[in-house]
């Protein structure tokens, strides 16, 4: 959004990638990937409806046991393990046709903050149902401005099946 240089900046940033797995092949495609600096992510959050943010926060709180997650990440130094199961639902990511991973970064380093984590397609669907029509409009505007792609990607973008914030 602000086009700041992420590798040479005082602002941390987030990367999200959404993947598609093709059944009975070993092919995994990246459908969407983007990086957003924390300042812009904050600006985006301000445009989202209070209801949507409250719904998403309540969902995250109800699905993630923060203490258990903190203990898990402190005992497993391999971050690949952090992404083996959906952070919300526990679904096996290796069995998801679509999934997303997210991480936080600063310059060229990944921040180990409980992120990186993975989100299953089921959780993406549940999250998409929690956001208000106004918030969907804001996200659609953002998507229209910053993304384009083949029909299957457009479909995913329209469903808001990624998390952004
Ligand atoms: Zn920015």
- What percent of the residues sit in helical stretches (DSSP H or I)? 40-55%
**Rough shape?**
globular
Query: Helical segment tally?
Result: 7
Number of strands: 5
The percentage of residues in β strands lies in 15-25%
Task: Give the helix/strand layout.
Layout: E1 13-21, E2 28-37, H1 38-47, H2 50-63, H3 66-75, H4 79-82, E3 98-106, E4 109-111, E5 117-120, H5 121-128, H6 133-146, H7 151-158
Antiparallel strand pairs: 1-2, 1-3, 3-4, 3-5
The structure holds zinc ion.
Structural description of this entry:
Helix content is 41%, strand content 21%. The model has no long low-confidence stretch (mean pLDDT 88). It has one domain. It has helices spanning 38-47, 50-63, 66-75, 79-82, 121-128, 133-146, 151-158; strands at 13-21, 28-37, 98-106, 109-111, 117-120. The protein starts with 12 loop residues before the first strand and ends in a 7-residue tail after the last helix. Strands 1, 2, 3, 4 and 5 form a 5-stranded antiparallel β-sheet that branches. The chain is globular and about 40 Å long. The protein is built from 7 helices and 5 strands; from the N terminus they run E-E-H-H-H-H-E-E-E-H-H-H. By secondary structure, the chain is α+β, with helices and mostly antiparallel strands. Zinc ion is lined by residues 1-2, 4, 37, 39-40.
């Amino acid at each position: 959004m602000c086009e700041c240089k992420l590798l040479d900046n005082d602002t941390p940033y987030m990367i999200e990638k959404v993947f598609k797995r093709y059944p009975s092949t070993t092919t995994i495609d990246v459908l969407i990937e983007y990086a957003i600096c924390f300042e812009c992510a904050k600006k985006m959050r301000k445009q989202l409806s209070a209801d949507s943010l409250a719904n998403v926060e309540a969902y995250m709180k109800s699905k993630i046991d923060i203490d258990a997650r903190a203990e898990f990440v402190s005992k497993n130094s391999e971050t690949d393990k952090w992404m083996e199961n959906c952070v919300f639902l526990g679904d096996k990511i290796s069995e998801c046709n679509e999934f997303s991973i997210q991480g936080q970064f600063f310059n060229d380093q990944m921040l180990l903050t409980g992120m990186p984590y993975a989100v299953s397609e089921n959780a993406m669907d549940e999250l998409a149902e929690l956001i208000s029509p106004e918030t969907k409009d804001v996200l659609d505007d953002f998507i229209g401005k910053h993304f384009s792609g083949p029909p299957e990607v457009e479909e995913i973008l329209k469903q808001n099946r990624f998390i952004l914030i």
